[in-house]
Amino acid sequence: MHEYRILIFVHTFLYNREKLPEVFSSYFVQNSYIHYYNTRRKCDLHLASMYSAVDKKSITNKGCNLWNKLPENIKTVGSYNLFRKRLKQHYLELI
Prior knowledge:
Number of strands: 0
Largest sheet: none
Oligomer: single chain
Helix content: 40-55%
Radius of gyration: 13 Å
Structural class: mainly alpha
């Protein structure tokens, strides 16, 4: 359940950033903003180097890892309700 909430937060950040407080404005960066050329992982989130144990437990690191593991058909859904539905289906299939 913890993972589900983190992914909802990441989705809101990517598709409805205006609904989040300003403090979250730079939590995640898509690879397409890092590389100015086409890559296979351009829709994934850029995973910055993490050195300390605290960094590795951060919501930024966990959010990036969880988001990057999702199938493309879930990541590309802009609708909040449809995203939640597909995410639940995805987790139910994993059980």
